Amino acid sequence: VIQARNISYGFGDTPLIQDFSVKIMRGDRIGLIGNNGVGKSTLLRLLLGELQPQTGTVKHGSNLQIGYFDQLRTELDPDKNIAENVGEGRDYIRIDGKDRHVIGYLRGFLFSAKRAMTPVKALSGGERNRVILAKLFTRPINLLILDEPTNDLDIETLEALENRLTEFDGSLIVVSHDREFLDNVVNRILVFEDDGQIREYVGNYSDWVRHGRHLAEMDRPSSQQRDSRPAGGAGVQRKPAKLSYKQARELEQLPARIEALEAETANLQGKINDPQFYSRPHEDVQAMLDQLQSKTAALEDAVERWAELEALQEAFRQRRNELVDRG
Ligand SMILES: Nc1ncnc2c1ncn2[C@@H]1O[C@H](COP(=O)(O)OP(=O)(O)OP(=O)(O)O)[C@@H](O)[C@H]1O
Ligand SMILES: [Mg+2]
Prior knowledge:
Layout: E1 2-11, E2 14-24, E3 29-33, H1 40-48, E4 55-60, E5 66-69, H2 82-87, E6 92-95, E7 98-101, H3 102-107, H4 125-136, E8 143-147, H5 155-167, E9 171-175, H6 179-185, E10 188-192, E11 198-202, H7 205-210, H8 223-227, H9 245-273, H10 282-325
Helix pairs in contact: 9-10
The chain binds adenosine-5'-triphosphate and magnesium ion.
């Protein structure tokens, strides 16, 4: 797919990459790891052909179709909505040989039909990443190059991405600091090591760690963590790290329910505040007061439940981020 021979590159007189060679074969799934600023993104751009090596050569195989998710996320049109960006103006896109409506396709990337109509400039960083990923997979690509795709992704999106990558049968090169993500998607590791060399290991990140290796800026192996993993089962034992399906649906529906209850209580309160209210028949008065009381209680319950689920989701997100940022 790609063959790099003895390539070197540096900005000014600091060499980043020295005399590096690699052969990337069809179906290889490579994780690229290293501390911040060591030259990972630069190496990707050399492999892509965006940068020319100062010495050595980079050769691409024939029919190579590259999808590139760049760290700066430069490719969306901020004024267009999600569906327009992903479909490039078309309602139907061709995915794995089938025509799919762009809105249906976006559901797989966790965008509701309504959200899909939101202009990209109004999105959060995490949502933007999701749009770029969705767009990337609409193309007929056989080599996917991802530069830190997991930054700002919530756990659901991360898992959706892992699933999509597992189905993807082309070659993959991915830069990431997320150990669990790498364990789930790669089978070769290239490491920018402390001595300035880039070395290769067969296996996933945990296999590399088992050789006693670590980097300052990666999720560092604690012996405890390693011991609790079953031999050979890296990445299999994922803790329940997200809301259950039921909880997620509940969380999704609560804002609408809260809004409806707020409207109902406000409406009742308005009637009760009317100076004529207590001149109504006693049963009516009592019924409305009871109703207000029960609706208010229901509203409080809903708000409390919503806060509880949000906190739970946030805790999952944080746990995830700690795994990503540790070190
Ligand atoms: N266009 C440029 N001109 C000068 N120096 C640059 C340029 N691009 C990158 N560098 C420097 O080269 C070094 C490597 O950058 P690169 O982006 O490849 O690192 P990285 O490993 O991807 O880092 P990060 O983990 O932060 O993404 C950094 O010190 C960076 O400041
Ligand atoms: Mg980088």
